[in-house]
Amino acid sequence: MALKDVVEELYTFRDHYYEHHQAASEDQKIKDLSDELNKTLKLFNEQKDEHEGAKKAEYDLLRAKALNILPDFNPEALEILTKLLKFHPKLVEAWNELGTCFWKKGDMKAAKTCFESALREEKNVESLRNLSMILRQIGQSPEDKLAKIHESLEKAKEAINLNIQDGKSWYILGNAYLSLYFTTDQNPSLLKQCLSAYNHAFSDASMKCNPDLYYNWAMALKYDENYRLALENFEKALKYDPFWNDPKEQLDMLVKHLENIQLMINKKGKMKLRKLKDILSSLQKELASSSANETFTDKKGQKVVLERSKFSALQEGLNADKILRGKVICHVYCTDSPSFTFCMIDEEETCFCVNVYNMVQGKGVIIGDSVAIYQPFLQHFNFTFCDKIFTFSSIRVNSPLQLEVNKKKLGQEVIAAPRLSVTLKSD
Fold first, then answer.
1. How would you class 350 by CB atoms within 10 Å of its CB: exposed for 0-12, middle for 13-18, buried for 19 or more?
2. DSSP string spanning 50-80?
3. Where would I find the beta strands (DSSP E) of 287-347?
4. Which PROSITE patterns does the entry mention (predicted)?
5. How many Å from the N-terminal Cα to the C-terminal Cα in the chain?
6. Looking at residue 360, what DSSP letter applies?
7. What residues contact residue 150 under an 8 Å CB cut-off, 6+ apart?
8. Nearest to 402 by CA among 371, 426, 379
9. For residue 303, what are the CA distances in angstroms to 144, 354, 411, 412?
């Protein structure tokens, strides 16, 4: 068998390992991969004499690529590639493999230089993908980090333009969009672009067994409040990497959070009946003395007249011409929730949850506060996961500027600064 085919088989074995070894641990995977690598290197040794002269460059490149199969840095691969590029500086694949060596060694600057050297010789998908990943890991100041993420996004787009069918490029583009989502103002449109890119990635059969893709997609779905699909994708990440703790922890936390939301809505915050009646009476008095229509300045700076609405009169999705008023009856805590979550009741004593994004920690509402939500976005949930039934409704608030608390409109001081770290599996 040709050595090129042997190396391709080695990478296929690694990338599809958990399809055939679902109960194996990460340590077992590394051991099995090391055994396969040793078999491959034995074939290289047997064919060494056949690859002298003009064929030696290809032999050295393939051997280094085989050595790079394991996650740890391999000094032999670094040595082979450094010598190879000294005599064959136009070998694009060798520059990419050398960049991978430096990356594993922790030398991001050298890795970046290698990928840029490869691109000077030829514009290629692998170098652009790798640069996109590297750029998101460097940068000193918040401004520099943001600029690097924008550059990372452009490199991923360039890679897709070279091969629109390449699932890994779509996956890396999705990661770049998700990083940008967290380093700016958590604009929902960025999240939609991220999810679209991940969806494109799955059109490539080679990505269907990638646990990282399922995990990152699940994280994005969680922020998008597509809870059923998020849970299913955390589960798939576990299927293809059963000893990876993060998907299990995220899945368990999300299930618990949804259970808590449903419980607090059904039990109306576990509030005593007398206290609940007092809060409802207070709300009704406030509403009786307030106008049925109010003026709101939207994010475009335009003044919009909003009609006060009961929860039951809202339609699913955006209610652009409505304002919803109610009282806070409880908080719903979660250690890793991207939103500040609480439950409210309206004038009809309907209880629902509210998820507020981009709010400064410690600046949230307290029990008994009167809250008005401008242009509420309503979602209904009704799904089953692992024999658990989830049925509840919630209001999504993308910015605290959509809120009024105790007749005071919230201002810029309650908007959270961009988060510069993203809890994601690396590319």
1. middle
2. GG-GGGHHHHHHHHHHHHTTSSS--HHHHHH
3. 293-297, 303-309, 317-318, 322-331, 339-345
4. TPR
5. 32
6. P
7. 180
8. 371
9. 36, 24, 17, 18
Q: Per residue in 238-285, pLDDT tens?
A: 998 888 899 999 999 999 999 999 999 999 999 999 999 999 999 999
B/e letters for 277-301, b = 16+ CB within 10 Å, e = fewer, are eebbeebeebbeeeeeebebeeeee
> What are the backbone angles phi and psi of residue 117, rounded to the nearest 5°?
-65, -40
| Residue 205 CB contacts under 8 Å (≥ 6 apart), including other chains | 167
Whose tokens are 């806070």? That residue is 328
| 125, 157 contact by CB (below 8 A) | no
Amino acid at 396: R
What's the fold here for domain 3-258? Answer: 1.25.40
Tokens 């042997």 identify what position? Answer: 6
Q: In the beta sheet, which residues pair with residue 385?
A: 388
Which of 68, 69, 61 has its CA nearest to residue 85? 61
CA distance 199 to 343: 33
Neighbours of 425 (CB within 10 A): 18
pTM: 0.89
* Residue extents of the structural domains in the chain: 3-258, 271-414
Helix (H) or strand (E) holding 302: none
CA angle 27, 32, 37 (to 5 degrees): 120
Specify which residues 355 forms β-bridges with: 341, 396
Which residues, 6 or more positions from 197, have their beta carbon under 8 angstroms from its beta carbon?
Answer: 170, 171, 173, 174, 177
CATH number of 271-414: 2.40.50.550
Q: What are phi and psi of 370, to 5 degrees?
A: -90, 125
**71 C-beta neighbours (distance < 10 Å), count:** 11
**CA 421, CA 183: separation in Å to the nearest integer?**
8
**C-alpha 417: how far from its chain's center?**
19
Between CA 103 and CA 399 the distance in angstroms is 38
Maximum Cα–Cα distance for the chain, whole Å? Answer: 93
Q: How far apart are CA 233 and CA 218, in angstroms?
A: 5
Question: CB-based burial of residue 23 (10 Å sphere; 0-12 exposed, 13-18 middle, 19+ buried)?
Answer: exposed
Positive or negative: CA dihedral 133, 136, 140, 144: positive
Residues 6+ apart with CB under 8 A from 356: 339, 340, 341, 342, 364, 397, 400, 403
Segments of the chain scoring below 50 in pLDDT: 420-424
